[in-house]
Design goal:
The protein is α/β, with parallel strands linked by helices. The chain has helices at 46-50, 74-78, 96-106, 110-126, 144-150, 154-166, 189-196, 221-232, and strands at 10-13, 18-22, 29-31, 33-35, 38-40, 85-91, 136-139, 169-170, 175-177, 200-202, 209-217, 237-245. The strands form four sheets. A five-stranded parallel β-sheet has the order 6-12-11-7-8, with helices on both faces. A three-stranded antiparallel β-sheet has the order 1-2-3, with no helix packed on it. It starts with 9 loop residues before the first strand and ends with a strand. Bound molecules: zinc ion (2 copies). Residues 23, 25-26, 28, 44-45, 47-48 line the site of one zinc ion.
């Protein structure tokens, strides 16, 4: 399913006297929804929503797809990461990767509601008991010059959505990125890990159970270094929550 670059258009449906928007993917009309007396626009239709690339059964630690849910994959058995488990809602595939790119690079924050609400459902399913929920959400911080360039931290925007939906406090000023690791994607796995070493510092107190928030997890090395830093500071349980999980061949 390819994401079409179509602007959200509105039109007046004369026969029903309802305003409508068009589904961004299939262009079929979607009636506006009314929530709390406010008109809210739906970006994609019900059918397209059901066909999004949801992540199915996956490793309970790193979210790599495997045949049995709640099992642990070979990589994690051999070399377990510092985070205790990863929850991701989607595969990083079309159209989700296009939505995330539009959100990240063009500031289209409306895509967060669509994607993060699915992540909230998945987190609620995964947390069998309320007490297993973390007490802090920690968005992966951007290096200051990158934040200045982009104007916002996508991980913080996701964390705000999750925090208000799940009633968990967002700790946005505790973790700081002190190393510019911008070229990370061009490095091989080994150099990537050494490049990230000591990339984060913490300032301030954190609860014992935290969740790191990011938009996409690929190798997990960035989140893993942040998880290492959190555990070194005494945090006992670290989860990793992301909108999508990408996989390198
Ligand atoms: Zn559609
Ligand atoms: Zn795994």
């Amino acid at each position: 399913m390819e994401s079409k670059k179509v602007n959200i258009r509105t039109k007046f449906n004369r026969s029903s006297s309802f305003f409508e928007s068009d589904c961004l993917l299939c262009l079929s009309p979607i009636p506006f929804q009314w929530t709390n007396k406010k008109k809210s626009m739906t970006l994609i239709c019900e059918d397209c929503c059901q066909r999004l690339p949801y992540l199915g059964t996956s490793c309970r630690v790193c979210a790599l797809p495997i045949a049995t849910d709640s099992a642990i994959c070979g990589h994690c058995l051999k070399d377990s990461p510092y985070y205790d488990r990863c929850i991701a809602a989607f595969h990083y595939e079309p159209p989700v990767n296009h939505f995330i790119a539009d959100f990240k690079y063009q500031g289209k924050l409306q895509f967060i509601n669509l994607l993060a609400s699915k992540l909230v459902s998945k987190i609620k399913q995964s947390a069998k008991h309320e007490e297993l929920m973390p007490d802090a959400l920690i968005p992966v911080p951007l290096y200051p010059s990158k934040l200045k360039h982009r104007g916002f931290n996508q991980a913080l925007e996701i964390a705000k959505h999750l925090g208000s939906s799940l009633n968990i406090k967002v700790y946005s000023g505790v973790a700081h990125r002190v190393k510019d690791t911008r070229q990370q994607s061009e490095l091989d796995a080994k150099t990537r890990v050494s490049n990230l070493k000591n990339a984060f510092v913490l300032q301030g107190e954190l609860p014992m159970h935290c969740a790191i928030i990011d938009d996409v997890v690929t190798t997990g090395s960035t989140a893993n270094e942040l998880a290492r830093t959190l555990k070194a500071a005494g945090v006992k349980g670290v989860e990793l929550w992301s909108l999508a999980r990408a996989f390198e061949e």
